[in-house]
Specification:
By secondary structure, this protein is an all-alpha fold. It contains twelve helices and no strands.
């Protein structure tokens, strides 16, 4: 979800080398993203939005917001996404994904109330997206809401039962509600699914902490 369908929907990927004009802006944005330069990619989409109108503008702004999140710039992401959502160009799943990104930006700014409101709004159009429920569960842990965390991760697991990231978060939810046996199972499964990924590494680290003896009181 670091680069959602919104960026792809902004325009079809342009061929390299990058030309001038709209196709060139999209091409440069994709090249910057692929090089890990998410801030530069976001700037390209914002420039494209400034030169566009209607749905094309809204999609470019949504893509910029998504990339600002990847660049660890949630304030800039929030501004771009609010502009995109204020227009009428994002419909159905595209709007839902933008709402989810807006929730992610709010959570990164410790605005949990806005994050929850945007997640709730996004459910109307992307309830079949496991990442929505993954994020909802993680947010619920921050909110101290065990019931929502359990229900949300249950929905995520139903939609993507073998996804390592979902299994990893399921371990966090289980640990949060005090079910250490389930936490161990989920983290073990996550590590096995993707042993060489950052998620697999994080799962192994979580298991190591679980096995660490408690400090004497």
């Amino acid at each position: 979800m670091i680069f959602t369908l919104l960026a792809a929907a902004a325009l079809a990927q342009a061929p390299a080398p990058c030309a001038s004009g709209t196709d060139g802006a999209v091409c440069r944005a994709f090249q910057a993203r692929d090089a890990g330069k998410h801030d530069a990619a976001a700037q390209e989409f914002e420039a494209l939005a400034s030169a566009s109108q209607g749905a094309a503008r809204d999609r470019a702004l949504a893509a910029a917001g998504n990339l600002w999140i990847a660049a660890d710039q949630p304030g800039k992401a929030a501004l771009a996404l609010d502009k995109a959502l204020a227009g009428a160009g994002l419909q159905a799943e595209q709007r839902g994904e933008a709402l989810l990104d807006r929730a992610r930006a709010a959570e990164a700014q410790n605005d949990l109330k806005t994050a929850r409101a945007k997640v709730t709004e996004a459910q109307a159009s992307i309830s079949d997206d496991p990442f929505l429920w993954y994020f909802s569960a993680a947010l619920a842990i921050r909110e101290g809401d065990a019931v929502t965390a359990r229900n949300a991760i249950g929905r995520a697991l139903t939609l993507a039962p073998n996804e390592a990231l979902i299994l990893f978060e399921a371990g966090h939810v289980a640990h949060f509600i005090g079910d250490l046996k389930a936490a161990r199972d989920y983290w073990t499964r996550a590590a096995a699914r993707e042993p060489n990924s950052p998620t697999g590494k994080a799962a192994r680290e979580a298991l190591a902490l679980l096995d660490k003896p408690a400090a004497p009181k």
